[in-house]
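Tokens for chain A. Residues wanted.
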């Protein structure tokens, strides 16, 4: 069985056959993703390192040398995830830097970033600054680096972290 958590705290269970069909359909629709993953695996195996978009390097764990299947699969997942997660982390860091050093100060907002958890930023702001803060955060985070595909930021507004409502204005 494969499990996937979906919005609204619902869990969906798939049998292995259904999961394989789902993955096949996904890769058939998004051929570039499959090609990227295959090329990434081959390049990492050849160079014995995983590299992010910005050149940060993580050594390869060498899945081919392990006898245990689960350990080889873990190494393969590490090989695929390192460049993606490392690049995403750098996007977050660069966006945070852009917010805190430039645009934030120019607008003289009373809002404060109070928490960052992985790729989520949590701000506390007076209601009158809500629109300006939303515009500023979206602009800075979506334009942190130009890619062939757009970076899209989801912003939620609410009185507490649990009750945020998505906003796409």
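Reply:
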């Amino acid at each position: 069985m494969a499990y996937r958590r979906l919005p609204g705290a619902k869990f969906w269970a798939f049998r292995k056959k259904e999961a394989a069909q789902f993955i096949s359909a996904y890769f058939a629709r998004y051929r570039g993703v499959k090609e990227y993953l295959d090329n990434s695996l081959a390049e990492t195996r050849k160079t014995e390192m995983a590299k992010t978009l910005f050149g940060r390097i993580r050594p390869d764990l060498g899945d081919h040398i392990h006898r245990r299947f689960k350990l080889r699969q873990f190494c393969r997942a590490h090989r695929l995830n390192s460049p993606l997660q490392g690049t995403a982390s750098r996007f977050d860091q660069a966006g945070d830097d852009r917010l805190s050093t430039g645009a934030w100060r120019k607008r003289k907002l009373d809002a404060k970033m109070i928490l960052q958890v992985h790729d989520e930023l949590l701000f506390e702001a007076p209601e009158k600054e809500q629109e300006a803060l939303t515009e500023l955060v979206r602009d800075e985070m979506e334009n942190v680096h130009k890619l062939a595909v757009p970076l899209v930021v989801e912003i939620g507004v609410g009185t507490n972290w649990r009750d945020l409502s998505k906003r796409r204005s």
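The mean pLDDT is 82. The domain at 92-167 is CATH 3.30.70.370 (Alpha-Beta Plaits).
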